[in-house]
Write a structure and sequence with these properties.
Elements lengths: L3 H12 L15 H5 L4 H11 L1 H22 L4 E10 L5 E3 L12 E3 L4 E14 L3 H67 L5 H35 L24 H11 L1 H21 L5 E12 L13 E10 L7 H67 L5 H36 L9
Antiparallel strand pairs: 1-4, 2-3, 4-5, 5-6
Helix pairs in contact: 1-6, 1-10, 3-5, 4-5, 5-6, 5-8, 5-10, 7-9, 8-9, 9-10
Length: 459
C-alpha cells in the first residue's frame, strides 16, 4: 500500500537534485531581462557574460599572457642607462714611494676631482644560453595554454550549472503544480465524503481520512513551494542577479528523439575536447621543456656586451684633465658553471619525476572521463525509456482515478480506494516530470563530460 508519507518523501528527494552553486555576486538586473520570459539559451548567454568566476578566469589568462611577453623579451638586447654624482671629502692623490728616487720624500699627484659626474650606457645581448631562453618561452606558452584550459573548464561548469539550475527550477514548478492539483482534487473528494456522510451513505471516518489526506497535501504544497523559491534564488545567483529578481522561465522542448552517437565515439571526443585532459597534456609538455631548461646550466652562457660612459667635473662630463672624459668598450662574456653540488642534476630529476607523475595522472583522468561519459550516456538512455513508460502510467493512473471516484459515488468501493487512486496519480505525475526533465539534465551532463555540444559528435 502506497502511503502519502512515502510519496511526500519522493517529492522532497526529487526537489533535492544535485545542484552546484557557482560563485556570484548580486547585481542590478537589466529591465530587458525581466520584461519577457527567459529561455535556457538566453540564460546561458547572460550567465557567461556576467558570471564572476568566469571573469576571474579571463583576467587570469590575460595575466599569464604577459608571461609569454616577458619570456620573449629576454631574446632582445638589454640597454641600461646610469648616472651618479660623487663628492669626496679630500682630493684623491697618488704618490711614489721609491726612496732611491725620492730620498726627501715621495711627491703626491692629484688623480681626480672631489666632485665627479658619471654617465654610463650598458648594452647586453645573449648569444647562447644552452637553449634556456627557448625553453623558458615554451614553458610560458604552456602556462598560457593551461590557463586557457582552466578558463574553458570554468566556462563549461558555468554552462552546465545554469542549465541544471534552469531545468531543476522548471521541474520544481511542475511538481508544485502537481501538488496544487492534488490539493484541489482532495478538496473535491473531501466534499464528496462529507456529502455522503450527511446522507448517511458512508461512515464519518471517511471524512476524517479525507481531512488527514488534505492536511498532508497542503503541507506538501507549502514545502515544495519553499524548495522552488530556493531553486530560483540559486539560479539568480548563478546569473549574477539579485536573489529576489522575479524572472520568468520559458519551458524547454525536450529532445527525446535525438540520436546519440556511439559510446566509443563519445570517449574519443572527450579526450580531444575536455579542457582538463588538454591541461594535463600541456603540463606534460611543460615538464619536458622544464627538463631542457634545467639542463641548460650544463652549457656555457655566452653574451655580448657594449658600454659607453662619460665622466668629468661638470654635469655633462665634458671636462676631465685626469683621464678620458668618455670611452666605449665592446666584448664577449662566457659564464660556465663548474660545480654547484649537484643542484642542476637534482632539478633535472625533479622535473623528470614530475613528468612521469603527470603521465600517470593523464591515464587516470582518461579512465575518469570514460566513467563520466558512460554515466551520462546511460542516464539519457534510461530517461528516454522512462519518459514513455511514465507517460503511459500517468494516463492509466488518471483513468484509474476517474473510475474509482465514479465507483465510490455508486458505493462500489470504499473511500480508501479513492485515496489510493489519488496517490497513484500523484506518483505517476511525479515520475513523468522527473523522467522528462531528467532527460534534459542527463544531456547537460553528457555535454559537460565530452567538453562541448553533442550535436556534431560522431559526424
Amino acid at each position: 500500500m502506497i502511503t502519502q508519507t512515502r510519496l511526500f518523501a519522493v517529492l522532497l528527494l526529487t526537489m533535492e537534485l544535485t545542484f552546484l552553486r557557482g560563485v556570484a555576486c548580486s547585481a542590478d538586473v537589466s529591465n530587458d531581462l525581466l520584461e519577457k520570459p527567459l529561455t535556457m539559451e538566453e540564460a546561458v548567454i547572460y550567465g557567461l557574460e556576467h558570471n564572476r568566476s568566469l571573469k576571474a578566469s579571463q583576467e587570469n589568462v590575460s595575466s599569464v599572457g604577459q608571461q609569454v611577453t616577458k619570456s620573449r623579451a629576454d631574446f632582445f638586447p638589454k640597454i641600461d642607462a646610469d648616472y651618479n654624482f660623487r663628492h669626496l671629502n679630500d682630493k684623491p692623490f697618488s704618490s711614489l714611494s721609491d726612496p732611491t728616487l725620492f730620498p726627501a720624500g715621495s711627491p703626491k699627484f692629484q688623480t681626480g676631482y672631489t666632485d665627479t659626474h658619471h654617465w654610463e650606457i650598458d648594452l647586453k645581448q645573449p648569444i647562447f644560453t644552452g637553449f634556456g631562453l627557448t625553453s623558458q618561452l615554451e614553458i610560458s606558452r604552456m602556462n598560457l595554454d593551461i590557463a586557457k584550459d582552466q578558463m574553458e573548464t570554468t566556462r563549461l561548469d558555468v554552462i552546465r550549472n545554469i542549465k541544471n539550475g534552469f531545468l531543476q527550477t522548471l521541474l520544481g514548478e511542475k511538481l508544485l503544480q502537481v501538488a496544487r492539483d492534488n490539493v484541489e482534487s482532495l478538496e473535491v473528494q473531501r466534499g464528496n465524503a462529507q456529502a455522503y456522510f450527511e446522507q448517511g451513505l458512508t461512515p464519518q471516518n471517511d471524512v476524517l481520512k479525507a481531512d488527514v489526506a488534505l492536511a498532508d497535501a497542503r503541507q506538501r504544497e507549502r514545502t515544495v513551494a519553499k524548495e522552488v523559491a530556493i531553486l530560483r534564488s540559486r539560479l539568480n545567483q548563478l546569473l549574477d542577479l539579485k536573489v529576489s529578481a522575479p524572472i520568468k522561465l520559458v519551458d524547454v522542448q525536450v529532445r527525446s528523439q535525438n540520436e546519440l552517437p556511439p559510446l566509443e565515439s563519445l570517449y574519443s571526443i572527450s579526450e580531444k575536447q575536455r579542457p582538463e585532459y588538454l591541461a594535463v597534456e600541456a603540463s606534460i609538455r611543460q615538464a619536458k621543456a622544464g627538463v631542457r631548461l634545467a639542463r641548460s646550466r650544463y652549457y656555457p652562457q655566452v653574451s655580448a656586451f657594449g658600454q659607453y660612459y662619460r665622466e668629468g667635473v661638470d654635469l655633462l662630463g665634458d671636462t676631465n684633465k685626469f683621464t678620458n672624459n668618455e670611452n666605449a668598450a665592446i666584448g664577449v662574456r662566457v659564464d660556465l658553471n663548474l660545480f654547484e653540488g649537484g643542484k642542476t642534476r637534482a632539478s633535472t630529476n625533479e622535473l623528470q619525476y614530475r613528468q612521469k607523475s603527470l603521465e600517470e595522472q593523464l591515464l587516470n583522468l582518461k579512465g575518469q572521463l570514460k566513467v563520466e561519459v558512460e554515466d551520462a550516456y546511460e542516464k539519457i538512455q534510461l530517461a528516454k525509456v522512462n519518459i514513455h513508460t511514465s507517460e503511459v502510467a500517468m494516463r492509466q493512473a488518471e483513468e484509474n482515478e476517474r473510475m474509482t471516484s465514479l465507483q465510490y459515488k455508486n458505493q462500489l468501493v470504499i473511500f480508501l480506494e479513492v485515496l489510493n487512486a489519488q496517490i497513484f496519480l500523484l506518483q505517476s505525475r511525479v515520475n513523468y516530470y522527473q523522467a522528462l526533465y531528467g532527460y534534459e539534465l542527463a544531456w547537460s551532463d553528457l555535454e559537460r563530460a565530452i567538453g562541448g555540444p553533442v550535436n556534431s559528435a560522431g559526424k
